[in-house]
Write a structure and sequence with these properties.
509 residues; mainly alpha; four-stranded antiparallel sheet; 6 strands; 6% strand; transmembrane helix
Length: 509
Amino acid sequence: IGNTVLHILVLQPNKTFACHMYSLILSYDRKKEGPGSLELIPNNEGLTPFKLAGVEGNTVMFQYLMQKRKHNLWSFGPLTTVLYDLTEIDSWAEDQSFLELIVSTKKREARQILDLTPVKELVSLKWNMYGRPYFCFLALFYILYMVCFTMCCVYRPLKPRIGNKTSSRDNTIYIQKMLQESYMTYEDELRLVGELITVIGAVVILILEIPDILRVGAAKYFGQTILGGPFHIIVITYACMILVTMVMRLTSTTGEVVPMSFALVLGWCNVMYFARGFQMLGPFTIMIQKMIFGDLMRFCWLMAVVILGFASAFYIIFQTENPENLGQFYNYPMSLFTTFELFLTIIDGPANYDVDLPFMYSVVYFAFAIIATLLMLNLLIAMMGDTHWRVAHERDELWRAQVVATTVMLERKLPRCLWPRSGICGREYGLGDRWYLRVEDRVDPNKHKVMRYTEAFKAQDRDNYDKGLEKMEINRNILYKKELSALSLSRSTSRTSSHRGWEILRHNT
């Protein structure tokens, strides 16, 4: 019952009352520490009161709980050294990491905890000492891996075509080799080494990604922008395309260019995932994700309807015409592709001035240009501008959350020998087996004095303003010019006294 009440207090809107009641309940708990403590008993979701305060974004309760966990080591003048208990905060030995819970929640208030002590110092320590070097090395390794895969695709086994052309539009001169013909020369053996590296890399990607999907859940794993959801979809699809290409190569099945092309596009697009490690590029990847999965997905439905309608009209118009004179609409798939290019203004309206064009083509193309180019493209630009304005206010905050998520991911993936535990063991200071983070804080001794000066001068300004209002009420029936001059004099007097007060404040500061 006491543990349930603690969880309820964390959710209370009255923060001061919740903190006092929290201390009162813990005062009746005999077991202050250990597994039987009320603060360490999780609820049905596996959250202790401390983790629940972080997930809900209750910064007041979080700071209150952290004040109970800190130990003042020593003080010398304005410098103070404090040890913060990292229990439930450090993700090194936690199955359900506090940092991972913070970055995976949808509440923006929860991400503000990442700027509080000691979470900010802990994340900065982990990222600067281990996270950034490992992440940069991983980015370099992945780029080299993609270069290897690209070279294997560029020099894939091909042989000249022997058969006759089936139509005048057939332009194929090379075809895919069979498996027995693909690995005969020294260059083929060198390419085989690169192909084996590519396949091994795809298997490793699946081995690393699948356990996290099973642990977190597919909806949460792929749906969170901060956790890199879209990039996880991209890299898993890339690995599957590599395995499909391998099976088609081993079975000598034609058409391996399809999964190979998808793999090349997805693999190189996944390089943008590593931009989150850099402050200059990280916020832009967030902007791209928001626009693609927000504005662009909604816009594609409207674009598909327009393209289907006008492509069908263009195909019907040119169905009776000679495709050799104007071949952009010679069949329905080509009509769809040509209309898509016209929609994005990639090409101009197709026309052959040596032949007569149907009259309806000019009418339909005029309507298409008005709807597609003038209306819908400007609508897309306006939607993206609105998204940019909304995301710009929190992109730095989202980028810091991405850094935290990347740090937790690397800490889970890497062996313990490459990522030692952060902090100081409490045994060195007689505080048991818990781990602590040492934080040095500088306290300004004149801080409270300056704040009192500020409040005093603000009160003086308010008094002068009230006096001015009273004077205006008394002289209500006086002429406008006299009243205006009196008001100006009152304001100048107030400004003069305030000016003297603020000069004293600046000098003391």
